[in-house]
Amino acid sequence: MMALDQLPDNAQVLVQGAARGLGRALAEQLLRESRVATLIATSRDADSPGLAELARTGGKRVLPLALDITGEAGIRQAMGRVAEQVPALDLVIVCAGLLHDRNIGMHPEKRLADITPERLAAGFAVNAFGPILLLKHAQLLLNHGRRAVFASLSARVGSIADNHLGGWYTYRAAKAAQNQFTRTAAIEMRRRNRESIVVGLHPGTTDTDLSRPFQRNVPDHKLFTPAFAATRLLEVINNLTPEDSGGLFAWDGERIPY
C-alpha cells in the first residue's frame, strides 16, 4: 500500500461498515498506516466478530462503535460519542450499500413491473439517505480548516450519463441521488472549510456479498479482491485535492460523469 502522505500525523479516521467486505479491507489497510492515530470502526453491531478482530489487531488505536446508517437518531448518538473521543476527523469513509436483500425480497429490477415502494424505500435509505445523514452529523468534526475528506462508496451505475443498459431501477436511482447529495454537500462544506473534500468513489466490481450474486459474467481480471479495491481507493483518496470535491471517482482515478 502506498503511504497516505496527505494524512496528518495523529490522524483521526472513521470507517462506516468496517466489520466486513470492502469496509473491513479499508480499515485493515488504514491500521498499517503509522499516521493513523485513531480508527473509529463502525458496524450495526459493535460486538461483531469483524470489529473485534480489528480491535485485536489495532489495540487502543481502534474504537469499535455501533452505527446503523438507516436511522438518524442512531447516527446522531454515534457521532456524539465520536465527538467525545476525538477533537476532529481527518477522513471519513462510508461503505454503506444495498443492492439485494432476500429478507425483504429485494433484487435489482429488470422491468418497471418489478418496482415496489418497499424496495425503493429500502434502497434509498441505505444508498442515498444514510451517507448524507452521516455527513450532516459529522460536519462539525470535519470543519477544522485542514484537509478533511468525506468519501462515500457510490457506483458507476448511478451515473445518468453512463446509463446505456437500463434496469436496476432502485440501485441506479438511489446512487444517482447519492451523487447529487455529494455534489451539493461539497459546495456547502467548501464554504466552511476550503480544504474539505467530499466525493463519491466507485470501487469496481469487488468480491463481496453485495456483488456475489452478479459475478457470473464478470471477467476474472475485472473482479477485484477487497484488498486490491481498498488499496486503489486509498490511493485515489490520497491524491484528491479540494478542486476534486463534489466529484465521482473510479478506483483507477477516472472521473465519472454524473
Automatic annotation (TrEMBL):
- Read off the Pfam families from this record: adh_short
Looking up SUPFAM superfamilies in the UniProt record yields: NAD(P)-binding Rossmann-fold domains (SSF51735)
> Which CDD domains does its entry note?
carb_red_sniffer_like_SDR_c
List the PANTHER family.
Answer: NAD(P)-BINDING ROSSMANN-FOLD SUPERFAMILY PROTEIN (PTHR43544:SF12), SHORT-CHAIN DEHYDROGENASE/REDUCTASE (PTHR43544)
Query: Know the name of this protein?
Result: SDR family NAD(P)-dependent oxidoreductase
**According to the entry, what is the taxonomic lineage of the organism?**
Bacteria, Pseudomonadati, Pseudomonadota, Gammaproteobacteria, Salinisphaerales
